[in-house]
Amino acid sequence: MIEGRNGFIAATFFMGMNKKFYNSLPRDLKKVIDRNSGMNTARWIGKVYDKVEAGGAAKAKKRGNKFNVLPPGEVAKMRAAAERVQQAWVADVTKKGHDGKALLAEAKALIDKYTE
Prior knowledge:
The chain has helices spanning 19-24, 27-35, 38-62, 72-95, 100-114. It is an all-alpha fold. It is flat and about 55 Å long.
């Protein structure tokens, strides 16, 4: 466990649909999909996830479980290791024709924006 706003993880959820199939749907079905996807749904899922996580932590504390908090030096080491993995992902995605650096920057910005 680390203290502070962001931990080591940010859960990523993805709902995908073939664009050609989506475009073939009637307008009313597209509206249903659109109302139940995108950033509003992502925000809702994130809040549900945070609530479940907080409830689990509260139950664990109530049972007397110990929580160990990593010292800042260890957190820095783990973040450095994660950075190497992220850069490998950027290289792989970029090789496939996408802007991996921009995608990673956008993901980090969204995590910062929606982390409470």
